Records
---
Amino acid sequence: MKYPPVEIRIILSSSSTRQTDHVVNVKVMPNGYVWGYNDPTVSAYHLLELKSVDEVLRQFDIMVSGLTFDIDPFRSLQFNVPALPPVMVFVRDLHLHVASIKKMLQNALVRVPQAMTQDEANEYMEQDEDEDADDEAEEEDEYANMPPLVALNESPARHGYFTRFQERLQAGNNVGTHTYFS
């Protein structure tokens, strides 16, 4: 299974196309994260290696800060976060949604949703259902091995629970200083 990146599309205007959008991809790597920025105006792809989710969120804050005071601003940002529907926010309203967007990013980077085909997903879900059935069977076995319940107004001795204790008591063995009534 592969791990899809978080994609942030930075859209210049309503007439922009996928080819003219600036794009940030955040990829999960074995030793951290890679923040990649594609600037189509200069055909450049910039990479930053980041060690933690906190560093990714700091880089996001830096980007948001720059976008909010830009004198020739972009129009909007589209957030394509794995396992969530795409979300688009106008740059002028970005400051209102930063906390929510950071939660989305953090969730995707910490929990790392996996991309798979529909057939793979169905197989995965069937395995999960099989494991649940096994867990239920084990739980039923545990309950089957438990002694029967005794009503609170009945004596446990009446049901033979204290047989060993009673035998030791009758044999004169020291069974402690507690007094038991039956």
---
Amino acid sequence: MALSAAHADANNIVQDEKGVRLAIRVVDAAVVYHGALCSFDTTVGLIKPFDGTEADRLAGWHFGDTVTGETSDSPPPEAAIVTGPFIWKNLTVAGLTGTPATDLGLDVWASDDGTYTKTDPGGSGARVGIIVRAVSSSKADVYMKNVMGWVDTQDTLPTPSPTPTPSPTPTPT
């Protein structure tokens, strides 16, 4: 379910020096809560809460106070975006078994701005991380990858074209 308040686990992130923090303007009337996964609105280039659209380019997670977009404000409101990578400790992830041998290393998918699952939501989500520690049957420590500009429909490597066989070098006559 999409966020309607700050994400309960959002204060449990551990970020190293590789993570990037950005301030990005928010789409008019969009409400971005603390801990929300955000994506770019392709029509205006501003961010909005991720709604599960696989073709959306992801921006990162908002770790600041709740922001409501109003582009007529001067200056317009901005979300405090963390692109990743970081470890999100004790994150609620649907579908966990609670058994480290079963859950460890599995992908984590976002189906909207605040819902995470270990199974691909199939056409309505984005792969955002990997389980690095199973905490319980509902919580895990998740390595969140750098998602800036990520489009989930492109998360597989393209099939390489066959390499043409080189022509033999002609021998001089």
